[in-house]
Design brief:
heterodimer; A: alpha+beta; OB fold (Dihydrolipoamide Acetyltransferase, E2P); Ribosomal Protein S8, Chain: A, domain 1; five-stranded mixed beta barrel; three-stranded antiparallel beta sheet; 4 helices
């Protein structure tokens, strides 16, 4: 049974580092609205801005093309910086790229590396906190989505999702349904039924 | 009011009860709703007695004006504003007056103690409170609603902030002053708390009070705030049923 946790609510009597929590006097408290997972003993934040971290896989849109670098919108208040040296063919504003965050410094300058241009398809955005639900336990939800829609679905940790294939509309509807119902239980079964009915 | 009951003022305590029939420690009816503005990152609508407040939270986002940005933490911008139609008496000019700017400032001080600003360097968290209808206690309504809107936006905080005003009218200490009690009473003390740590985040006083009265009023404030915090939690839970 998952109950909604509110900011300031204690979740552990000992200090445990995890996203969306803070430690005070040796105890761990939630800082945001979230659900408490009693199996893993962790807080699952339901809301929150995306803050990039090193090694995360993200999908972004080129916002600005300068002489030797690009500014990439990765759905965060902090923009991604991509050096032109990393890119084989020049990018233009509006291009969709997948990349990895190589470094985030203490003033939140975000460096991106290993860029890959994504052509065609479409990109949708969901809050970054809901991404684990779209992927599912060991990727089970994502695999189910890809099979049912005949699409390749790349999920960025930043909440940007690239969809390309046979039934992209069904994929988009399904992902948005997961986003709306992320906090409920029994979602995996409901999604299975939803996809089998072709999105009804 | 300055501690002296002005001439022609209504009698505020009749037969041991307040003019609206409430007990001295009784709150006006409060209604809270979270997530009411589509375009805001977080929002809340709150009705407290005849007060109506709408709060929108935007951020963390780019800090404008740029020169205010802090390289180590987010800047909290809080704007308290009364709509032109909010007062039941005069048609007042819209936009912040001196009082509104002061309330914005003390609200900012209160929330700077709980919002984890260090998590968003160089950004701003913009909070806009609009008083749609005012009937005494709008800053307490605005603070209580702002806590909900910040939580709805996923802004990390050490605790919710809960606010209520306690005061003295007709010679009696009472919780949650209405407009007449505020205007014609002897003293008004808005308070805001972090109920988890029992810290006082806002305390203002208008009027004359003895030390014992203040101590008692703060205790009354804590008691009332405990009830209000339960309502805040319930309003947040209702959004995610």
């Amino acid at each position: 049974m998952r109950e909604l946790i509110v900011p300031g609510e204690m979740i552990a009597e000992s200090p445990e580092q995890s996203k969306g929590t803070f430690i005070e006097a040796g105890k761990t408290y939630s800082a945001v609205l979230g659900l408490y997972d009693s199996e893993t003993n962790r807080l699952i934040p339901l809301k929150g801005a995306y803050i990039p971290q090193a090694d995360e896989f993200v999908i972004g849109v080129v916002e600005e093309a300068r002489f030797s670098s690009y500014n990439i919108d990765i759905g965060s208040v902090y923009k991604g910086y991509l050096s032109a040296k990393e890119v084989r063919e020049d990018l233009k504003v509006g291009d969709v790229v997948a990349a990895r965050v190589s470094l985030v410094d203490e003033v939140r300058n975000v460096d991106l590396t290993e860029p890959r241009l994504l052509s065609g398809g479409e990109v949708i955005a969901i809050p970054a906190v809901k991404v684990p639900r779209v992927i599912g336990k060991e990727g089970s939800m994502l695999k189910m989505l890809e099979q049912a829609t005949g699409c390749q679905i790349l999920v960025g940790k930043n909440g940007r999702i690239w969809i390309s294939g046979q039934k992209p509309d069904l994929a988009v509807t399904a992902v948005l349904k997961i986003e709306r119902e992320a906090h409920t239980s029994g979602l995996t079964d409901r999604m299975k039924a939803f996809l089998e009915k072709g999105g009804a | 009011m300055v501690g002296i009951v002005p001439e022609g003022a209504p009698t505020l305590v009749v037969g041991g009860k307040r003019i609206d029939g409430r007990a001295f420690d009784e709150l006006r009816p409060i209604r809270m709703e979270v997530g009411v503005l589509n375009r805001a990152d977080g929002s809340a609508y709150l009705e407290w007695g005849r007060n109506k407040v709408m709060v929108g939270v935007y951020g963390p986002r780019e800090c404008i004006p740029r020169h205010e940005a802090d390289p180590f933490r987010a800047v909290l911008h809080i704007g308290y504003s009364m709509a032109a139609f909010s007062s039941m008496e005069e048609r007042n000019r819209p936009g912040p007056n001196r009082r509104a700017r002061e309330i914005s400032k003390v609200m900012r001080h209160a929330f700077e103690n709980v919002v984890l600003l260090e998590q968003f360097p160089k950004t701003a968290i913009d909070v806009r409170c609009e008083i749609l209808q005012s009937d005494g206690g709008t800053r307490c309504s605005a603070i209580t609603a702002t806590a909900l809107a910040l939580a709805d936006a996923g802004i990390p905080m050490r605790d919710l902030v809960t606010s209520v005003a306690v005061g003295k009218a007709g010679g009696e200490l009472m919780t949650d002053l209405g407009k007449e009690e505020d205007n014609f009473g002897e003293a008004d003390m808005p308070l805001a708390f972090s109920m988890r740590t029992r810290e006082i985040l806002l305390l203002q006083q208008d009027g004359l009070l003895t030390k014992e009265e203040i101590q008692k009023m703060i205790r009354m404030g804590f008691d009332a705030a405990a009830k209000i915090r339960k309502m805040q939690v319930e309003a947040l839970r209702r959004k995610y049923k």
